[in-house]
Amino acid sequence: DVQMTQFPSSLSASLGDRVTITCRASQPIGDFLAWFQQKPGKAPKSLIYSASNLQSGVPSRFSGRGSGTEFTLTITTLQPEDFATYYCQQHNSYPLTFGGGTKVGV
Amino acid sequence: QVQLVQSGAEVTKPGASVKISCKASGYSFTDYYMHWVRQAPGQGLEWMGIINPSGGDATYAPKFQGRVIMTRDASTATVYMELSSLRSEDTAIYYCARALIYLIDSWGQGTLVTVSS
Question: Fewest CB atoms less than 10 Å from the CB: which of B32, B45, B65, B84?
Fold first, then answer.
């Protein structure tokens, strides 16, 4: 199985900050990486697929980069609704696997 | 708009089985695959498997192989996930998620399954 490691596991940020989350795969996965956002008590929301493509309706302050084994999710100008937990997921091979999550808090 | 509506919460005993439904609407049911993902209390997301609603073929994560069955009813645009031989560690919220094969774009609201004696 491909192991996905996210860091940091949590971070504190302020409104307007630029936030970057890193996700590392245990083996190359091309650009087959997705990012999800989850707020407490809610289902996850799909943000990005294939490393850098925004899902429909996702604000442009979210961006994704990377390929191979190293990926990043960046939020420019953090908004109140962005405080949440973020997960990466590789969709290169079965079983699909998620990172452990990064909680973005105040 | 795309909607995935899951069945309600379940409380069940160790050793029993549970079957959760996910009813799709707002799109062509057979054009998208459906994944099942679970989340134990306070934990991260765990992928369980995927079903092709068109043919009914499914692929399961090795961890759940032999205990999980994913099926669909195209006449009602509903997919099902049955998990058997339940244990306390299976207590979790179970989500269905629509995907263009591997690219998940929409999620159900989740179904809480509690396994307790």
Answer: B65
Beta-carbon contacts of residue B98 (< 8 Å; ≥ 6 apart): B2, B4, B24, B27, B32, B33, B34, B35, B104, B105, B106, B107
Best interface-test mutation with A: which of B3, B47, B65, B106 has the largest number of A CBs within 10 A? B47
Give pLDDT tens digits for B8-61: 999 999 999 999 999 999 999 999 999 999 999 999 999 999 999 999 999 999
pLDDT-derived band at A106, boundaries 50, 70, 90: confident
Q: Taking CB atoms and an 8 Å limit, are A43 and B47 in contact across chains?
A: no
Name the nearest CA neighbour of A89 among B90, B102, B56: B102
**Cα gap B57→A22, rounded to integer Å:** 34
What the block records as the tokens of B53 is 């609603």
Supply the DSSP symbol for A94: S
One-letter amino acid for residue B32 of the chain: Y
Q: Cβ of B82 under 8 Å from any chain A Cβ?
A: no
